[in-house]
Amino acid sequence: MADITLTAECERRLVAVEVSSQRTVEWIIAVPELTERRTRPPLNLALVLDRSGSMHGDKLRFVQQAARHVLGALDERDRVAIVAYDDQVTLVAAGTRVTDDVRRELLRRIDELRPGGMTDLAGGWLEGCRQIGDELVEGVNRALLLTDGLANRGITDVEELIHHARELRRRGVATSTFGVGLDFNEQLLTALAEQGGGHFYYIERPEQIPDVFRQELGELLTVVGREAFLTIDVPRGVAVEVLGDLPHERQGEQLRIFLGDLAAGERRAIYTRVLTPPDAPGTSVVLRGELGYADLDGRAISVEAQLALTYAREAEVLLAPIYKELLARASEVELATAAARALRLERAGQREEARSTLVQALAAAAVYAPAQVTASYSELAGRMEQGLSEADRKQAQFASYKTRQSRG
Amino acid sequence: MAARHWDRHADMTDTNDQVYRIGELAEAAGVTPRTIRYYTAEGLLPPPDSRGAYALYSADHLRRLKLIARLKEAYLPLSEIRAILSGLTPDEVEALLAQHEHTPAAPSSASDYVAQVLAERSGPRAIAEGRAGYTGRAQLPSQPAAPPLQTPRHMVGASSHGGDFFNALRVGRAEPAPSQPPEVAQRSEEQPGLLGRILPRRRPAGERREDAAVEERWRRVTLAPGVELHIRDPLPERLQERVRQLLERAGELFAE
Prior knowledge:
The structure holds two protein chains of two kinds. Chain A has helices at 58-73, 100-111, 121-133, 158-170, 186-195, 209-221, 314-319, 324-347, 351-365, 371-386, 390-405, and strands at 5-10, 14-16, 21-30, 43-50, 79-85, 89-97, 140-147, 174-180, 197-203, 223-233, 239-242, 248-251, 254-263, 267-276, 284-294, 300-312. Chain A is of the alpha/beta class. The longest helix of chain A is centred in the last third of the chain and has 24 residues, at 324-347. Chain B has a two-stranded antiparallel sheet with strand order 1-2. In chain B, strands 3-4 form a two-stranded antiparallel ribbon. The longest helix of chain B is centred in the last third of the chain and has 17 residues, at 237-253. In chain B, a hairpin with a 2-residue loop joins strand 3 and strand 4. The radius of gyration of chain B is 25 Å and the shape is extended. The interface between A and B is large, with 77 and 73 residues.
């Protein structure tokens, strides 16, 4: 199979001698499509399913259908645990290898699921993570957490849950989240997925549940690079920032952005803003990026890309052509980031702050962002002033999440 | 409040009246002098005694620096760390630090981590294996028995909220787990799990450039090709609205 590639580009390769210059760097990770048949990663999953009272009817029925689909795709290579939660956490099945006999038995137990009471989302999720953690596989270890409601039993503090997502991910267990309908907390589920190294999905209608699970499962089965991260060496005097509020850390002269697993055919764009100090003409500053990940055998692989910014007189720099499409893409990510912050404020009841956060970002992005994009965010900002409906909140949050992730 | 504690600090007779010059303090705390000056300017550290030829720092400064490092590990932003530290007397700083040093490192496996979180939560676990619909849950065919759910788990402290103030800081867990020998404790800077295996090793402290990320940050807004506006973040509130108007106006001006 061809290799995963990393490339770097920015809007203008020249930077000014006299004053500091700002550049937007686009790092593109391209994962080739699968060509021949190849071994897939073993999966170690926990299906963490909400069966609180509100799941009654269609929702639970479609969840059962989705769970059956997941089981159908797994075999002896894989482990699965099933956790159902309402105010109680029920271990429907502890983590187990999926032999044919086990599959039959699990299908039976899925069919027996009945809706119950309140929502101990945290309890169910943590139990699922523990089942996965009991026997990590050299593959994909991930809890799939589905809910249609607010965590109102057990640990309900959003900050605390996000902290646990990060800690569990560091210990090898990722989390993807599936929010169904209008009553879940989209801020919580987005953050759990983001800090948990998985994906977030907003599922508007119950009948979409099976398809969305199929999509996630399809990606898990074609994962070729695990726990990817982009490390950027920050040269002395240069400042680098990540756009999109992606999980990252700084260590001395390095900035590291955590990307989660990479699936075949996936393409990701990461945007960084770079500020160069004044320097002598003819010199250059080199940005080095390294994409690291583990292959299916657990070997550490790394791929490098470099971008040299060359110093020239400001007058000359200003004459160089600008790669406007790149700036347009970066502005979209910036707007999505501002929208995510605004949505957080809006949900907290700070409508005016929410609106003004988005309006400021719009004014700043106006030069390069595509007109239809700014129009739709302006419209969102306007609606924020009145307060958003739950459906608007979810849709806007999901759209912002997808844009910030720049996955395609 | 902060000022009051620091005044007390100034005329406090510390039991260990060790004093440090900035370089010595930096070395003892494993940070750079620049970081110390930065923290002082940002109000995270009380100012040094600068009556003599050299600015002199105390054991309290050292402890505060260590505590800041701990809090940073717990992912607290500097603003929050400042809020916490400014409310602490030197004695409280010492107590907090001592308590933390006796705290075992967080467990390295995901399962142990979850067990610890749930144990700290409320004691008896609410896992119901035999609820309606699941009574007489059959053992899975050809599978070893599911691992027992260790209940009730070891109870730690009271509730995780509003318990002792150390827990409230989210620094770590108060009760040592006697079963965990210190030699297996995870070094906090190492990532457990797959990430830990594939991440490059950290550079030695001396090579780090501290706090590049927390210096003042200028946002540059391109108004048009060749025209930029520089805004320092965070912008004081009184200016935000005016800057917003400026940007809107500029957007109209440069629209074509």
